[in-house]
Amino acid sequence: MRSSDPEEILRSGKGVCAGYSSLFQDMCSRAGITCISVNGYGKGAGYQVGQKIPDESNHAWNMVFLEGRWHLLDSTWGAGNTSENSSKFTFMYNEFYFLTHPALFIGNHYPDKKEHQLLQPTVSRKQFEQFPFWKGSFYNCGLLAFHPETGIIYSENGKVSVIVESQQDLQYIFDVNGNKHGVMKLVKCGMELDVYLQRTGDHELSIYAMQPGSSNKYTWVLGYKIICTAVDATMRIPKCLNNPVGPSWITEEAGLVEPSYPEPVIHTVDGRCTLSFKTIKDLNFLCSLDSDEIKITSNMERRHVFLTQTHDKVEMKVQLPSQGTYVLKIYIRPEGSKSSYDYLCNYLIICTNPSVKWPVFPMTYDQWGRNFELVHPLEGVLPKNTNIPFKLRIPDVTKVCFKGNTFIPLTFSNRGYWEGTCSTTGHEKLIVMIQYNNTNSWQYLLEYTVSK
Questions:
Q1: Which CATH architecture has domain 364-450?
Q2: Residues with catalytic annotation?
């Protein structure tokens, strides 16, 4: 056992919490500051959310009398932290534990004497045991509050919800026993998390936070214990889903505002949905569809989403190939850039209708651009031996035609659309081509396949 004698602690540079406390008290005494040591229970390394607090003390800290009132501090935790097995101490100054407000200090310090809480009314032992698990990192990251306020959460049909509020926009990650079975939405100055448990029993939920753009790692800020007695077998979180989900301050900063679907999960009855954003920056978009339930081939991942973009709006039509749970991923890059697309966000799309079976959209080429609109046909696979009417809005071009076995021109109508009818008889593919003024070359725009 290490000594708690102040002179020995100072000489050796080593000591446990009682040594830190006694040395701090001795230093205050020499400086003429009234200080006492406080014994009690600290939720330190090895603590599990919801565990019963033993009667015997496991920690020591101090109270100092300054400017007419008492203050709390923990010089041990303020100096650094230990690893989970308490085998290594890392020196890392943490100002939070010096002159901490009593209402915050009580979150993980329970003194043997209630008057040492410096609270009115005082917190009972049972209340202390039921707190979620957090430390100074919670407030150092600028977090303000959390809900639920009890450390043990009972799931409802396998689902629990957690809300965290902060002073500013932060980035978050979470895990439940090392897994990511949840949907996290970033909101202004906080986040909302729905956890969907995959099995009954006890689970540990850990939440981490980080300043946007920070080079530092995510910091653990909050822990809960979840007790699950039933599981919703219909709700499964795909492994390909990236949290956070849905629009957020991140998409706003990128230049996408006023989302048509502000929530991260989209439920569709007929297997179709149309998402849109107002765009306040010049961006190019790329979208793909993914799923853990069916095999999404390279031909499918982008052809079940059709993009239409104007100068201030982007629209994404989605048609699911079958019932199931899907992830729509959205990528962006600045207009005119030749760099690769950067991932921006994703949505969770759920359809339980077994009759859903939508075909792919037509394949778009690079020339499919801003202010282009496809009215019909939207089906990428056309029936054989059929006359198909076409209607497109393609501004600033001289000619538009079909290319199959022959070239078939479309006509520019007085309504501002290129229109025409094409027979699929004898064609395996139909390609829509465009020609700009003062050029003799044709550029590919859309490609359709004719069913066999």
A1: Sandwich (2.60)
A2: 17, 59, 74
